Amino acid sequence: MSNVAELPTKDTITLIINRKNVDKVTYVFKNRYGNKIGEYTNKSPATLSSQSNVARQFKQIVNPKGDLKPRQVNNQFSELKQLLQLNYENELSVIEQEIADKKQAEQQKDTSKLKEAITKLQSLDCPLIYIGSIVEWFTAGERNNILYAFTVYAGQVILQNPVSVICLGEASSGKSHIQETALKLIPKRFVVNEKKITEAALFNRAKKDKYFYDGKIVNYGDMGGSNDHEFMEESKNLMKELQSDGFLNKPLNISDGEGGWDVKDLELVGRPCLTYTTVPNHYFDDQEMSRSIFITPRMDNQKIFNQRNSALEFKHGRSYKILKQYEREAELVPYMLLHLKEVFEDIVVINPYVYFLINFLKNSSFYKRDFDKFNGLLKTITALNYYNHEVYDIGGKKVILTNIADVQLFMSLLKPYKESISANLARKLLRF
């Protein structure tokens, strides 16, 4: 059935449903010559009142001189509503079927990708090195930084180990590139992009789902200027509090419908982590430093950067084709993380090499809070290497143990940052 309704005057109304919000409908009025004479957004036809914008336009068309009785015009509008509602329901069924078909196709694609990712993961001697070899094709000389950020993000997905990632560098130094490349390897459902969110907007999330931020990586984007930090300070502090405590409460006054007010608590539950980019002169308080790792772009990679750009300029050359091949392989990485997340729902990671961490952090002034942070990072590396470990049953609980190969990867990944970790600052700040 058509989504166009014809009026007695030969004018027409075209009904357009918003596919993202099917309760929102656009009504387009056209005259008999096809020229648009009005366009209004309202709810579904059955809910339209006789005083709605659609009703007023209808009355203007069918009763321009006002010589018809109001009851007669209202009856005509009621008949029109029935016809429009029928059109709406038919259009809605088509949209719902399209959405269902698309969802089914996506689920089939996800299932296929997941199987492929599991097979690939099982075949790898060292998944992190494999991921690093892919990353090298997306960047120029920033493999270690991207792997560092990725491993921290992966810890949030697989083990719910929330550590914030802050990329620190001057304008155009490549800090956003590091962050964005690492986030591309993370399942989209775990990344929440929040640009300049206020406290009120943050708590509005709780109205629909109090677990909205649970286990998520909350991306604040580029916060290069001090004004950005000042604007976001309140919501950023609340997010850090949620990261630490796992819950937030805010009382809200709601009308009781009888002239009074009821107090209702808006509650957010869960442990998210933050990620954003900023400039070196920003001051970080102890609370933020304790919850974060800092990544600084390299400034000595101009030669390899230029070589990469030169090779990729030939869009259908050998290097370009290899890049496209690795981009397709990179699509499997988020599915690997989804699989490992499911695996580790009932498996515990134990690190018997605690003394390595103690030695690694021996010069840190913040070793008490740094231990959990970096022990979690080492356990994430262990989780990524899951298929290279034996699963033990200890007291009825499945356990895997960190091995020396995991420790070696950890030390290799963190080696460029060892000095800055001791000071709990970004490498960039140690130069000043």
Task: Please give the structural blueprint.
Blueprint lengths: L3 E3 L5 E6 L7 E6 L5 E7 L10 H10 L7 H54 L3 H9 L7 H17 L4 E5 L6 H10 L6 E3 L5 H10 L8 E6 L3 H20 L1 E9 L5 E9 L3 E6 L7 H5 L1 E4 L6 H11 L5 H13 L2 H11 L3 E4 L3 H7 L6 H18 L7 E3 L2 E5 L2 H11 L3 H6 L9
Parallel strand pairs: 5-10, 5-11, 6-7, 7-10, 12-14
Antiparallel strand pairs: 1-2, 2-3, 3-4, 8-9, 13-14
Helix pairs in contact: 2-11, 3-4, 4-5, 4-11, 4-13, 13-14
* Average pLDDT number: 85
Q: N- to C-terminal separation? A: 71 Å
Summing up helix and strand content along with how strands pair, one would put the structural category as alpha/beta
Widest sheet: strand ordering: 6-7-10-5-11
String of helices and strands = EEEEHHHHEHEHEHEEEHEHHHEHHEEHH
Shape: elongated
**What is the β-strand count?**
14
Radius of gyration: 29 Å
Task: Profile the largest sheet.
Answer: 5 strands, parallel
Bin the strand percentage: 15-25%
Model regions low in confidence, pLDDT < 50 over at least 5 residues: none
Helix fraction, binned, reads 40-55%
Structure annotation, total helices = 15
